[in-house]
């Protein structure tokens, strides 16, 4: 809610110390359960594909197609929410789809059902993402958005730490049992991951308050998109360029698994790669809130430029690891640490920057546009990297990704330099 004072719009909600309300906390807890569910799959999926005999190109395409479905869903869900005036029911449906997708993946014997399961999960992720972020942003004042989003991402990522950690532990424990085939331990982990997915639905239903807003039946998607500020469109272009190199981190796990397999064997290599991914997520948990709080003081856009630069560095170092054929765990740990830092910046601040550029009555639609750009470009990035990995070399794939991310970083830097003058 805003007032006019001294000729400008100001927030009447003054919550310098009260930003951590029930809705922000509830959304974080829900996201933690959701991440616990699907990040468990992320960390064991490369190993699961390996025992099923599915190549790296398939993983890149599966993750890319899933990201694309998620991105288009984000656009539709944001527009529908702004038009109809309610968001909570759509978010609940989105969270419910994640455990359903896990069940399909657990049943998969080849890539078709695995792809379907990932699509169902990512459709749910796309449905809920922009609406949940809009709920969190509008539950706090403008001056505390960075802290709220940083806190949300930190709690969200706790699930992304605990899920893979438990998944890797259960995977190791399951090796002590007799299985008819090598995929048995992986399937057990997938079945167990359904439980936190169901708890996410319960948590959002009971903890998050999102009063229905006035419907806007005259809202039209394409006219709304055309009417978005020019500065926001330029920002989306820079995000898109970076996204063309910003591959799925399932491919980081796969890379670590392949590099470590000659020394440790595929199952133990998958466990080590999974623990490295857990380390990446721990870094994200620790860094997310401080990054958000810092952004409230010095500006989110400048920090986002630095985060993008770290993303490009991740691609460079992964290319170097393959060039050296390095099974060095310290080198791989450093790569995953840097990846955790850049994802912490990206997840906490892309939405914060967007909220500063657009009108609040089209916030969900704007978040949908942001999600669509991210998803479409990640589809291309993950698919191209997977194909180059299989057809040419992972060195070429990661090198190309790094070059594109550097280009996106410079595009965002230009916007950051020009924005104060605008």
UniProtKB/TrEMBL annotation:
Domain Major facilitator superfamily (MFS) profile: residue ranges: 20-419
Transmembrane segments: 43-69, 90-114, 157-176, 188-208, 235-254, 259-278, 298-320, 327-345, 387-413
Top-rank taxon: Bacteria
Alphabetically ordered keywords of this record: Membrane, Transmembrane, Transmembrane helix
InterPro entries: MFS, MFS_dom, MFS_trans_sf
Protein name: MFS transporter
Organism: Robbsia betulipollinis
């Amino acid at each position: 809610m805003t007032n006019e004072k001294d000729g400008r719009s100001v927030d009447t909600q003054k919550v310098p110390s009260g930003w951590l309300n029930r809705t922000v906390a509830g959304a974080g807890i829900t996201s933690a359960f959701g991440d616990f569910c699907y990040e468990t799959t992320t960390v064991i999926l490369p190993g699961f594909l390996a025992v099923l005999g599915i190549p790296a190109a398939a993983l890149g395409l599966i993750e890319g197609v899933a990201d694309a479905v998620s991105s288009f869903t984000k656009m539709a869900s944001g527009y529908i929410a702004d038009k109809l005036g309610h968001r909570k029911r759509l978010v609940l449906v989105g969270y419910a789809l994640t455990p359903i997708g896990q069940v399909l993946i657990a049943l998969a014997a080849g890539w078709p059902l695995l792809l379907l399961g990932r699509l169902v999960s990512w459709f749910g992720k796309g449905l809920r993402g922009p609406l949940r972020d809009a709920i969190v942003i509008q539950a706090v004042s403008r001056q505390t958005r960075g802290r709220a989003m940083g806190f949300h991402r930190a709690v969200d990522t706790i699930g992304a730490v605990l899920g893979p950690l438990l998944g890797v532990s259960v995977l190791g424990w399951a090796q002590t049992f007799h299985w008819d085939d090598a995929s048995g331990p992986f399937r057990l982990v997938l079945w167990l991951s359904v439980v936190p997915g169901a708890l996410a639905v319960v948590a959002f239903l009971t903890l998050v308050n999102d009063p229905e807003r006035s419907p806007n039946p005259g809202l039209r998607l394409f006219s709304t998109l055309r009417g978005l500020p020019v500065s926001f469109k330029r920002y989306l272009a820079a995000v898109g360029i970076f996204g063309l190199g910003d591959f799925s981190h399932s491919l980081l796990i796969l890379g670590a698994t392949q590099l470590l397999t000659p020394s440790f064997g595929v199952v133990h290599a998958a466990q080590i790669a999974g623990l490295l991914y857990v380390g990446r997520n721990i870094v994200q948990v620790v860094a997310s809130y401080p990054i958000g709080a810092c952004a409230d003081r010095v500006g989110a856009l400048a920090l986002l430029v630095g985060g993008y630069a770290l993303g490009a560095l991740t691609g460079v170092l992964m290319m170097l690891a393959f060039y050296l054929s390095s099974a060095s765990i310290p080198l791989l740990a450093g790569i995953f640490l840097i990846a955790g830092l850049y994802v912490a910046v990206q997840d906490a601040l892309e939405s914060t920057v967007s909220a500063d550029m657009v009108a609040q009555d089209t916030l969900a639609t704007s978040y949908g546009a942001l999600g669509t750009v991210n998803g479409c470009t990640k589809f291309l990035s993950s698919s191209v990297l997977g194909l180059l990995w299989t057809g040419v070399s992972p060195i070429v794939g990661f090198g190309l990704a790094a070059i594109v991310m550097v280009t996106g970083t410079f595009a965002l830097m230009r916007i950051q330099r020009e924005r104060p003058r605008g």
